[in-house]
Amino acid sequence: MNSSNLPTVSVVVIAYNDAGLVGEAVSSALAQGPVVAEVIAVDDASSDSTGRVLDELAAAHPRLKVVHRADNSGGCGTPRNDGIAVATSPYVLFLDSDDVLPPGAAEALVRTAVLHGAPVTVGAAVRRELPQHHDVPWMPGLHTPGEVVERPADRPELVRDTLCVNKLYERDFLEKHQLRFPDGRFTYEDFVFTAGVLAAAPRIAVTGELVYVWHVRRDAARVSISLDRKDVGNWRSRIEAHRTASGILADASPELGRACQVKFLEYDLPMYLRELGKDPEYQRAWWTLTRAYLDTFDEADVASAAPHARWIVRVLRAAETPPADVERLTRLAADPPRLLPPYASGPDGGPVWSAELPVELDGLLALPTGDLPVTMDAEPAGRTAVRIRLHDLYGRLAAAAPQSAQLHFLPRAGGAPVLAKPVPLAPDPDGGWSAVLPFRPGDLAATGRAQGLRRLQTWNVAVGVRCADGSSLITSLRPRAGLLRRRALPSGRYGVLLTQPFRTGSGSLALRLAPGAAGAMYLVRNRLHRARAARESV
Q1: Which key words tag this protein in UniProt (predicted)?
Q2: How far is the C-alpha of 19 from the C-alpha of 3, rounded, in Å?
Q3: Ranges of the chain with pLDDT below 70
Q4: CA distance 105 to 533
Q5: By the 8 A CB rule, do 53 and 25 touch?
Q6: Which of 7, 9, 117, 216 has the fewest other C-beta atoms within 10 Å?
Q7: CA 253, CA 259: separation in Å to the nearest integer?
Q8: What pLDDT, on a 0 to 100 scale, did the predictor assign at position 495?
Q9: In terms of CATH architecture, what is 3-227?
């Protein structure tokens, strides 16, 4: 079937006070070609020039229809519903005003939908961090290209993909099941809409093509709802959206309902917990709200979650207020999870959270070596080496006998990891293992350049450990005293190489490299820009 014979798509673009970006979004939809019969742009009563920008575009592009709302709805659901109401094509696709559709997205989705007779078709999406253009795949590994799911209950893990924008919907399917978004100011409205879609039990087809680019602008004056987590209200909204979605799914299928509950424990809860911060008032409010919601979960749902998620739930339930070691809990919520020392034992000798909160860490002793939430500290050992210390974990690592450690540098912008040479680990007199791991920043910067990384390079730092029993693990590093200092190193290749180790939001070590004078100036400007954005957000 050639492009001219394909069924057509209505692309619904929603916009509010986004005059500077909405044109790019609309243009990316119009550029999809004849498969997009119409682009319906809904202006949610913007107070800037968004409406005028859309009207000017519509005057030049007959396929663009503009809907002007008289009153602002306060959310994303109502304008999307308005777009569905006026759509005329057999298929509907959603697009936000600050994102874009990559070339060929609509055609790839329609071809897959027609091939498999699927009312819902899903494609790949990326979160693109701007201005770095660092792409992070959305839910990697969840969808298999070419897969056809006859019933969502056959693949309950699909509840983890809550996006509505990386999917094509048959308009008759939406109408038959009266599927609409929550109206008004309902944050995370796509949770509820997606739950309704899955509850309707459609056949779902998967294309491996990239169909959506989600732009993430963390330093924007008005951040997106999903990034606006500076007060507990955002968490309350996410809980309410999850509660509603979970009820819809549980009514349709016990398997989907449980999967939704487990997803909250393994994904939503750790994501917000690791961003808990140090504000005591926020911590207390968050803690109270979270404990109250977790009390509504069945123990069977908690038991179905991954071990570190179960432990987090049980510590939260056991402590009425945030404990003194709450930072340990935020690190357990990191990816990969890390259980920081000290390590306490219960009356029977089994692992517990702490002497003050003797919550059983059930299943820890049975975990494979690679799944253990180990902690590895890092401190400076000269200008181009780090000294690491690997902590034992209730004798599990001692039984595996760690032998060597190897630095892994993973480009945050995507690409192949860079591995240093393995170094033998030596037992410490007081337990654990240590080693000095050298690396050559100039060689790392050159590899980054060869991979297409220009000016500022950013690398996540991890360490792989091999053990005598044949097992292995990879973990992140916890930066310790004096490691997070910027250094300017002489370089025969670049003249100067600026290195800046830093701590990520989850407490792990990462590294910025700025080769040459131009790179160093870019790093300094980038740091000043982040500092200014942080001040303006207070």
Answers
A1: Transferase
A2: 32
A3: 1-4, 218-230, 492, 494, 517-538
A4: 34
A5: no
A6: 117
A7: 10
A8: 72
A9: Alpha-Beta Complex (3.90)
